[in-house]
Specification:
Structural class: mainly alpha
Radius of gyration: 24 Å
Order of helices and strands: EHEHEHEHEHHHHHHHHHHHHHHHHH
Bound molecules: flavin-adenine dinucleotide
Strand content: 5-15%
Strand order of the largest sheet: 3-2-1-4-5
Number of helices: 21
Shape: globular
Largest sheet: 5 strands, parallel
């Protein structure tokens, strides 16, 4: 047995199964040290919800590693310094890690690997938790894709979701090493609302597999119909698990292929009527790939719109509007229900994310970056690539984005996707006695109906912060000014 160990540096890959870095480390036959180094990135501090999830995910990962004979070492500070001192202490000769494709993180990892190689340490950077590396797919002109359908068509042709076999146990490094505890990282604030937030979630690999099993058994085949109904559990809820790498995306696709027991690529190319749910779900996974592709190819989009003309858009710095949106007190029930679901669960339904996003940037004319940073802080699944793509989509300034002039009417959106008002009533209990006909526009309900529902508007629940038709016209006028200015050079 070689005496020198190797190191596996983990980040957003908190799983044992199909973890390429761990599997490669096992192939080296060297004893393995698994280390998580907590280091706040230069440009992005971890959001509050992400920090909470991370603390639980690290606990679960540490437990999982233990059952495979490995210990999770925890450090904090400068990644390079911490690794250098670990290498010095243990004589480690190799380091393995899975790539993260966020621009800053990728750059740090590349710099790190160069510096470690200068110290004669072999560095192996493996593919991150995506089907493709974000530079793998380019259009016929060898340029990045900016339209999802073209990207996805190209992706399907080259789809490979084989999973690597994970050993049943690993050779751990036995001498004891200094490690912080997860609590030392101060990821939790330690209040009761954190436990409430977590109550329907099980961060970690086991939780991820359980969510996937439930989804495959109960939702997948109807996903095309259920995914747009926010009052039911009609989606996979895998997003935080995928973000933290608690399950590999290859595992998700392989288990789908196993469930349907036929050629998945063929299904994606030409789904039959009863395979539409499968095609639709894998396409969403495709959006995740697309988001990583766009962020890698256009790293400036972290703060700037992909369509640069939107930099000159005339926003209103509506602080009160932003506050009412954050608190779920805009007076538009579907918007407020979404924001309260986010506050109580750390997650929001995709359809409602689009509605609340559109409302913030178009009805209130608040810059998309404000919404993005609120989501960043409050979502368990906060993911740089997906969040930026989502917000630039709602604003109309990103890749394959919604046209600016399409302004969601929050009343009609509510009536279309929550026709019986069940979603609204769940998250806004003040409105629970309002009949369906008025649930998305309580300000139009006659006095006697409001009396019977025991609600006084303006006291228990607000009037709309802005009138829809006025807001629509104002947004279109602002857009026109931007286009006119652009045309005038
Ligand atoms: P499912 O419908 O079950 O989809 C399966 C998986 O596909 C998701 O877990 C996710 O990884 C991926 N996915 C689905 N839709 C999208 C999409 N539109 N773009 C990229 N990937 C997608 N998703 C995040 O993971 N993190 C974010 O920070 C985030 N911010 C968003 C902000 C806005 C304004 C909008 C409109 C969307 C955002 N999304 C984000 C995308 C989407 O809303 C969530 O991925 C989805 O709601 C997660 O729920 P689920 O796991 O049940 O999804």
């Amino acid at each position: 047995m070689p005496s020198f160990p190797c190191i596996v540096k983990v980040f957003c890959d908190l799983r044992v199964q199909d973890n390429l870095a761990l599997i490669e480390a096992a192939r080296s036959k060297q004893p393995i040290i698994v280390v998580y180094i907590h280091s706040e990135m230069k440009t992005r501090k971890l959001g509050k919800a992400s920090a909470l999830w991370l603390s639980e995910s690290l606990k679960a990962f540490s437990k999982e590693l233990k059952s495979y004979g490995l210990q999770l070492i925890i450090k904090k500070g400068d990644v390079k310094k911490e690794l250098e001192s670990l290498i010095k202490e243990t004589g480690a000769t190799k380091i393995f890690f899975n790539k993260s494709y966020e621009p800053d993180q990728l750059k740090l990892d590349i710099d790190l690997s160069r510096e470690l190689e200068n110290l004669n340490v072999d560095v192996e950077m493996l593919k991150g938790n995506y089907l493709f590396e974000p530079w793998d797919l380019l259009n016929k002109q060898h340029k990045p894709f900016q339209v999802f359908t073209h990207f996805w068509k190209c992706a399907i042709e080259r789809l490979d979701f084989a999973i690597e076999k994970t050993p049943s146990s690993f050779l751990g490094y036995t001498p004891s090493l200094a490690s912080l505890t997860i609590e030392d990282l101060h990821l939790r604030e330690g209040n009761e609302s954190e436990d409430e937030l977590l109550q329907n979630w099980t961060p970690g690999e086991k939780g991820a597999h359980a969510k996937l099993s439930h989804f495959l058994k109960n939702i997948l085949f109807q996903y095309n119909e259920t995914r747009d109904v926010p009052s039911i559990n009609g989606t996979s809820l895998l997003s935080p698990h995928l973000h933290f790498g608690e399950i590999s995306v290859q595992t998700v696709l392989s288990r789908i292929a196993k469930t349907i027991d036929c050629d998945l690529v063929r299904v994606l190319k030409k789904p039959s009527k009863d395979q539409l749910g499968i095609e639709c779900f894998v396409r969403e996974i495709g959006w995740r790939e697309f988001a990583a592709h766009v962020l890698y190819q256009f790293p400036e989009t972290v703060t700037k719109p992909l369509r640069r003309n939107f930099e000159r858009f005339s926003w209103i710095d509506d602080k009160n509007g932003l506050l009412s949106w954050q608190k779920g007190m805009t007076g538009y029930p579907i918007v407020d229900a979404g924001m309260r679901q986010l506050e109580k669960t750390g997650w929001m339904h995709n359809r409602v994310r689009m509605i609340v996003g559109s409302f913030l940037v178009k009805h209130l004319l608040v810059p998309w970056q404000r919404g993005e940073s609120w989501f960043w802080d409050t979502l368990f699944d906060a993911d740089l690539a997906n969040n930026i793509l989502g917000w630039q989509w709602v604003q109309g300034c990103g890749a394959d984005a919604a046209p600016y002039f399409r302004i969601f009417n929050p009343v009609l959106q509510g009536e279309k996707f929550d026709s019986d008002g069940l979603y609204v009533k769940r998250w806004i209990p003040e409105l629970k006695n309002i009949p369906s006909a008025y649930i998305h526009k309580p300000w139009l309900a006659p006095e006697d109906i409001l009396d019977r529902a025991k609600i006084t508007l303006g006291i228990e629940y607000p009037y709309p912060v802005v009138e829809h038709e006025f807001a629509r016209k104002r947004a279109l006028a602002s857009f026109k000014i931007m286009v006119d200015n652009q045309n005038a050079g």
